[in-house]
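Progress against Task 2.4 (sequence-to-structure conversion) is shown through the following example record, which the project officer requested during the mid-term review.
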Amino acid sequence: MKKTTLLLGMGAMMLSFGQARAQETIPEGMEAITNASEIQLTTQDNLNRSKNEKPLVVLPNGSMIFSATTEATGEELFICKDDQVSIIKDIVEGSTGSDPKWMTVVGDKVFFATTTAEYGMELWITDGTEEGTMLVKDIYEGDLGSDLFGLTAFNGKCLFFAKDSDSELDAYIDTENGDKWLWISDGTEEGTARIANVTTREGIDGMSGYLVSTSKMVFFIGYDRQWNETLWITDGTSEGTKALKDIYPAPNTDGSEFETQAATIDWLTPIENEFNDKLVVFRANTLDNSGKNIGSEIWYSNGTAEGTQWVGVDYAAGEENGVPKNTEFAFPIQYGGKVYFRAKDGIHGCEPGVTDFTAEGTHYICDINYWSNDPIYDSWGPEYPYIWKGYMFCQANGSYYFPEDTYNDSGYCLWRYNMEEGGVTPTAENGLIGFQYQSNWTNGVEIFSGNNSDEARYFTPYNGRLYFRAQDVSNNHELWVLDGVDATPAKVADFSGDALPHSFTVTNDAFYFITTTTAVLYKYTTEPTTLRTPNAAANTLSIYPNPATDVININIAADLAYVEIFDLSGKCVLTQEGNRKTLNVSNLSTGIYMLRARTTDGDAFSAKLTK
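Structure tokens generated for the chain above:
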């Protein structure tokens, strides 16, 4: 059933994008909200906040905002409200389009960058209506544009980097194009101001974006004229914006004005404040305690100079051709007071590791890809990790035995890890398993059998199940699901061609996604896995205080199995396992969230949380 409504003020139009591909196997409860012959979504297939210029975002009322193209309007900003899609505003009238980017929810509005002939690329804001969509400020006056990026919500305002005439004239990093300095905006022209003459390094790898927000401060990679590239923080004011310390104080030798060399920070990732008050982890160039360069290693910071520390172990020890080995630390994820990641330890290749921020507690877990030590094969796992019901699900390139005496390779595929193992390295004595390939819990069933890559990623929970994208033959990426941690993966839908679904979003009690090949928005609704009537003694759940500041109490009579908190984009931002009825939310940014809880009896509850 067609659900697209284009409110363009010019009557019905015939658009020439071609017909959507025929659908082969679409389950009951799934329907197309848009039609490829009328509108094509331009939302990007990328979870990385620093690389995805065109995300789909969700307002507090459940409406989704995204960029899309029609023949009449070009690429503009659209809204899906009550499953009806319409253009918000034809900012550049006619078929040219304004190329909206970096959509970011702040409160009940969306900040974004868009380009017009009059102003160039500048900061705009929308509340989802035409009259509520407007230019915030012409930061670089005239038609050149400020080329802003890195938009990030923090305490009801929007932080970002932008170029103006001052930063262009006083550039010391990008002297050819001009530096982009740190700005903040409350959505008004007078409330939009530059707060620091500091730029960042564009093109980072970390998934959390250029500005990593915590409850009290924002971390970012910045440049100090003395210390070169190092770790910075801001509280949204000029006085509260500063470099924390010289992370890599090796003497500079390139003849530039910097006294020391660049720290080359990456994978800057927030962790929960309850974990020893350490707020971010990252990798950076490192000198050991004797002043020797040991390459890129693992660091953490709580926002103070004293609390910004190397974990104390040379994880990737040794040299190669006279150059220190690097950890290639990436994809960190927190659980139970520890951070799990992938990294090279100099022995096993790039494999799973764990840290509790001590030297003793930072180590390799297991060798997923143990085919050979010469040469060393990397698993590059875990990639895209997601923790669900006490297990980490992820993508990895590995080796496994199934049956027990039969050795196989998996390709880049779905693996899991039981978080109860706590990062301990498996041995014959302790009986631990480590990371486990799908065939070992499905009695030999594989998504893409043989040494092939199913490329599992984008794990998203909905109604008691875990959805993800995977392929079972080459170039056939579709929507898949796990009904439980021990379930055999099942394909949900099989579109004609390679669907490449992305932008998984849970809102309004439904699951939405976009197909890359047809650029269509789909809606999928299912019944929860638990359909029985909840126990009468446990049929209510409440949380307080609400609005919350640091810790919330969960008032429910039944024992809890786990609690999850989702932001308005449908992303799970916090998980807590076990029957703990207090939850530290101090690391969450200001906004509206959905708390979902599952009891040990299997009953599901939800409550709205305001921070």
